[in-house]
Amino acid sequence: MRIIVTRVQPQAQHWAERFAASGHEALVLPLIEVRGLPDTTAVRAAWQRLPGYAAVMFVSRHAVDFFFQERPGPVSAGNPLTVPAPRFWSTGPGTAKALLAQGVPPALLDTPAEQAGQFDSEALWSLVHTGVRQGSKVLIVRGDSVASDGSTSADNDAGVGREWLAERLRQAGAQVDFLVAYQRGAPVWGDQQRELARDAASSGAVWLFSSAEALGHLHELLPGQDWAATRAHATHPRIAAAARGLGFGVVTQSRPTWEEVLASVESPA
Question: Global pTM?
Answer without folding.
Answer: 0.76
